Every structure is written in C-alpha cells, then in structure tokens.
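Subject: Sanity check before I submit

Could someone independently write out the structure tokens for this chain? I want to compare against mine line by line before I put it in a report. The sequence has 465 residues.
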Amino acid sequence: MSQQQLRRGSLRSDPPAAPPAPGSPRPASRLVGWLGGFGCLAAGYAVFQSLVGILPGSLDGEPARYAIAAVSGLGTAVAAWLAAALVRARVAESERGRVRALPIAPLSGPGPLPEVFTAAHRALTEQVAVVDDPVRGRLTGWPHSLGESDPNAPVHPTPVGTAYGLHIVLDLGMSEGKLGAGELVRTLWNLRLPGGGWSARSQGAEARPEVTALVLGALARAGAPPELLAAEVARCESRFTPELDSTGRELTHVVTTVLRGLLRAAPDSHLLPLLRDAVVAGAVTDPRRAHRRCWGYRLAPFHGSPSPLHTAQAVVALDRAARVLGESQNARAAREDGVRWLLACPDTPHDACLDLENQREEIRRRRTDDPSRLEVLNVRHFTAAWVLRALLTSGAREIARAEEQEEAWRERLDGAAAAVWRGQTDGIWTWARDDAGELRRPMWMTYQGLSALRAHALWKYQPDG
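---
Independent answer below. Compare away.
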C-alpha cells in the first residue's frame, strides 16, 4: 500500500469493466461500420473522378465518358462495401468469441499491509527477551523499546513493553511459538510489584494507575478471568483518587488511559462514570474553531492550549465509554464537539499538518516515600495514530454523514493514515529523540501504528462483487 493509495483511500484495485450485454453493439464493430459506410462512397467517388479525368475525349461524346466513369465508380463502391461487410462480420465473430472465452483474471498478491504485519511479527520474535529471574521466575517479553542492550546484564522485560507486545500479538493473530500469549500473560503477572499493581521502569517501586490500567486491559483482552483481575482492579481504584494522586486525576492522558484500561478489565467498576464525567468536565472551547469543545493536556485549570492529541484521546475514551456505560446528553455533545474540532483543522496538506505533530509531556508526582523529591515520567505521544483512531470511531462517521462533512472527514482520515504509514520501516515505528538525535523504537509506538493501520484497513475493506 503506497502513500498515494492511502491518500486516495484505496486499498483494492478497481474492478474490471463488465462485458457488453449480448446483442449490444461493440465499439470495434461500430467503428468498422462507420468507416465502411463512408469508405464505400468515397472509393466510388474517387474512381468516378479519376476516370472522368483520364478517359479520352474520342469516346462517343461526353455522356459516354461519364457513363463509363459512373459504372466503374459504382462497381468499386459495391466491392468496397462487400469488403467492409466481410471485415465487420469477422470482427463481430472475433469479439463474440472473446466474450465467451473471457479469461479469469489472476488473483493479485497480498498488499503491503500484510507484509508489514509479517515483518513486525518477525522483529518481535527475533527480539523477544527471555530471562530467568531469581525472584520473579522466567520472564518472556520486551523492554520499553526494541534494540535496547546492556553490556553488564541481560535486557529484562518491562510491564509497559510486554503489555504493548501482548496487544500486538493479539492484534496480529500470530500468537504461537516464542510469542505465545500465555507466556506473556504469565510474565505480566510475575512483574507485579510486591504491594500489587505495576509501574513504568522510571517510576520505581510504587504502582501507578495509568500503567496498572494498561496491564489490566491487556490481561483482560488476553482472556484473564475477571476474578483474578478483581483484586488488582480494586487496588487501582483505591489509589486513583484526588487525594492520593492529585496530579494524575488532573491530566488528560492519565485519566483517559485509566478509563480505557478499566473499560476492558472491569466494565462494572464504580470509578468509570467518575472518570468519564471528569473528561467531559475538562473540555475547553476554542474560539479559533467556532468555539467547539476540545481538550488540552490538563482537565483542570490551567488546561493548556487546545491539543489535537489530547482531543483525540478524549474522543476515543468517551466513544468506548458510551458503548459500555451509555451516554448522557452532555457527554455526547462534548464527544461530538471534539470530532468537529478535529474536522476543522485549517492546515494543509492533511498528511503533514500541524494537528499531526508528535507531542511529549512530563508527569511530575511527589514521591510518597520522600515527598521532597519528584518522580518524573517522560511521555511521548504518536499524534497521527490517535487522530486516526478518533476519526475512525463510529460517532465520528455518524457526524460526518449527518452534517455533510464526509469530504473533510475523508481528507483528514486518509491524511492521518498516510502519516502513520510513513513512520514505519518493516513494521516498526521509530521515535527520534529531540535531545540527542538518537533513534528509539518504543513498543507503544509500534503497537499504536499497527493498531491504527489495522483499524483503517478494516474500515476500508470492500469485497469485490
């Protein structure tokens, strides 16, 4: 699938033109008939003129000369007409034979997208880390990024890298061999912190709700029994309160991540309506885009500038919440306004517009073991993948159809898809570090790229015939 195909929104070749109906005139026979009709008269007239000019005047008068020329011209015209009729008959018969023996078009080979999936699976298989940890047991998974190395110790799987790897394996449907989902699930359980929950590598030994919800969502998607997840869900709920995590409860990224994870792992959680309402209440209006509601990086003042990334994250979370929890009128209005805000992007071209620029943010929390020190988590965001996922929600499609915005919707949708596609090499996405120029291949970015392209391809699919 080339970038041009993505921009045009085409994932399959155009169907072959249908053969003409039986008995209908065919282009080639019509052309021969037209030429034949004029050609006979022209040939006859040419012979007539030539003979008039060359016959000797000694013939019995001018009438005789013209009579001879006329007869010869008429004969030539009849002969030409008969020849043309013969050609028409042969052409028509040939075309009828071709219609009867129309060859079956050979099946085209797989497009580039399956090749990207296969290449991604191969890369994950080659770089999976298998470590026998003396405390946690056998661990099978991935670190935060592919290609990490440590000369002093083997690379250990992390909760974040392995959770996203499990999502990729489930998306690709290739859970066999080294990438068996069972081994990855067992590893995530073994990576639990002593007090329960999970954290990112840079967050230390204290569980954080956004990482815990990410892991719980992956485990639930892999089929972990709800009763096994219940204890960890309860810990996540009890720790993600304004009193215990005031920073996290005010950040759009953190709240929407927890909301999405718990929707998968615990759809009956009492925390879900509270988080959904917090997202709705945290919307802001943007006078530059018709005062539509959108989101910044914070749900509480100061909200920050309107952000395509955080607006897309909010739209995706609210769309999923609506399907699980139902939706109030205010929640629906906020979600729909977020879609309209994304559709109102004034920049072009839409595969390289400002709305698709990748973002990064820092999450700073007070450490509970030492409140005088801060825990700093650097979060990077694949904006194009989030915008693509937001525009692919069923609510976005409904708005585009109802408000006659389908052209704008398709332009922005295909632009985001092209930007996502452009970021991969052999199924792996790369993040360029701003500070050192170093290239990293984070697992979360590859998951988001593959997931977004898969969703886009499924939406585009149209069976032939």
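---
OP: Matches mine. For the report I'm noting this point. The longest strand covers residues 359-366.
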